[in-house]
Amino acid sequence: MQFINLHTHSFTNDTSVYEVVNQYPWEFQESIPNYSIGIHPWYIDGNRVGTDLACIEEKLASTNCIALGECGLDKRIEIPLEKQLEVFKDQLALVQKTNKPVILHCVAAYQEVIAVKKEMNVQNPMIIHGFSKNEQVAQSLLDNGFYLSFGKYLLRNPELESVFQKVPMDRFFLETDTIEETIAQVYEKASEMKNIPINELKQIVKNNFEATFKREF
């Protein structure tokens, strides 16, 4: 059974891993078989937003496009939150024409992301990637229907263990994002924290992926 890497910026072409590779509209690579595509809040460029959104709409119609993202909100950058919200909502409007999930970048803006989900009545599954916050934030997101994806901080932050242990088995994913460690290493750490064998963890993540992404292995 393959490892599933929910979010990575590097395509390894490793047959033991099913990778959802992050792509940006302005540097899209047709050769990558399974990908998400979106406008990251860091890279909003007013001169090309229209072109980027048109590309996203086109790619969302492709079976190789697994999800929208990463997209979202980040309060720790200079781009005004109002502009970020506008671009975020424009992307959500496109994905709402499909049943594809959304992979979210969120920094210090969890309440705003929850509010947008409610305001737009987003029914597409929404996954916070690279989750690193406390139990209170995790529970608030879970209560509002979000999924949580864990990676770098599971390896780097021991305090996250208690948070991860309490996340329901049907509400999490695992990822590498931009770290040098492999997805197998992330699974190894997650299996220790959940106190379950790797193969059982693989099955759990596979079940979550099939249910959320409507894809079967």
Write up what this structure looks like.
This protein has 217 residues and is an alpha/beta fold. 40% of the residues lie in helices and 19% in strands. The chain contains eight helices and eight strands. It has helices at residues 49-60, 81-95, 110-120, 135-143, 152-156, 160-166, 183-194, 198-213, and strands at 3-8, 17-23, 35-37, 65-74, 102-107, 126-128, 147-150, 172-174. Strand 4 (65-74), helix 2 (81-95) and strand 5 (102-107) form a beta-alpha-beta unit. The chain starts with a strand and ends with a helix. The model has no long low-confidence stretch (mean pLDDT 97).
Rg: 16 Å
Q: In which range does the helix fraction lie?
A: 40-55%
Quaternary form: single chain
Structural class, by secondary structure, is alpha/beta
Tell me the strand order in the biggest sheet: 1-2-3-4-5-6-7-8
Specify the number of helices.
8
- Fraction in beta strands: 15-25%
Features:
217 residues, alpha/beta, 8 helices, 40% helix, globular
Short note summarizing the structure:
This protein is of the alpha/beta class. The chain has helices spanning 49-60, 81-95, 110-120, 135-143, 152-156, 160-166, 183-194, 198-213; strands at residues 3-8, 17-23, 35-37, 65-74, 102-107, 126-128, 147-150, 172-174. Helices cover 40% and strands 19% of the residues.
SSE topology sketch:
Elements: E1 3-8, E2 17-23, E3 35-37, H1 49-60, E4 65-74, H2 81-95, E5 102-107, H3 110-120, E6 126-128, H4 135-143, E7 147-150, H5 152-156, H6 160-166, E8 172-174, H7 183-194, H8 198-213
Parallel strand pairs: 1-2, 2-3, 3-4, 4-5, 5-6, 6-7, 7-8
Helix pairs in contact: 1-2
